[in-house]
Design a protein that fits this description.
Blueprint lengths: L2 E5 L2 E4 L4 E8 L7 E7 L6 E7 L5 E3 L7 E6 L4 E6 L8 E8 L1 H4 L5 E2 L3 E6 L1
Parallel strand pairs: 2-11
Antiparallel strand pairs: 1-3, 3-8, 4-5, 4-9, 5-6, 7-8, 9-10, 9-11
């Protein structure tokens, strides 16, 4: 059973920074994708950033490019999202996800419970 546990959310003022962490437990076999999604009230869940463990390639939604950085520590089985220059529109519940979606078009198979990020103006 794969389990993903996020932490690091909180409340910050616009321009501030947060670092989200996601610790994975259980076995995920083969190269896979890990990433961050977010969902604000009344809006659809959107992919924010992802990393493909096979090559280390990363991808970001346009709205966070240059501000957010996704990274992983394989030894700690931890995924990070460094968020800088935060804007009020970044406020959302952030979810960690794992699966094969970045190369086969499916939805992520595993999800964390989410961590809330609130950015005030």
């Amino acid at each position: 059973q794969v389990r993903l546990v996020e932490s690091g959310g909180g409340s910050v003022q616009a321009g501030g920074a947060l670092r989200l962490s996601c610790v994975a437990s259980g076995n995920i076999y083969g190269p896979y994708c890990m990433g961050w999604f977010r969902q604000a009230p009344g809006k659809e869940r959107e992919g924010v950033a992802r990393i493909y463990t096979g090559s280390g390639s990363t991808a970001y939604v346009d709205s966070v490019k240059g501000r957010f950085t996704i990274s992983q520590d394989n030894a700690k089985r931890t995924l990070y999202l460094q968020m800088n220059s935060l804007k009020p529109e970044d406020s959302a519940m952030y979810y960690c996800a794992a699966g094969s979606w970045c190369y086969d078009g499916t939805s992520p198979r595993y999800w964390g419970q989410g961590t809330q990020v609130t950015v005030s103006s």
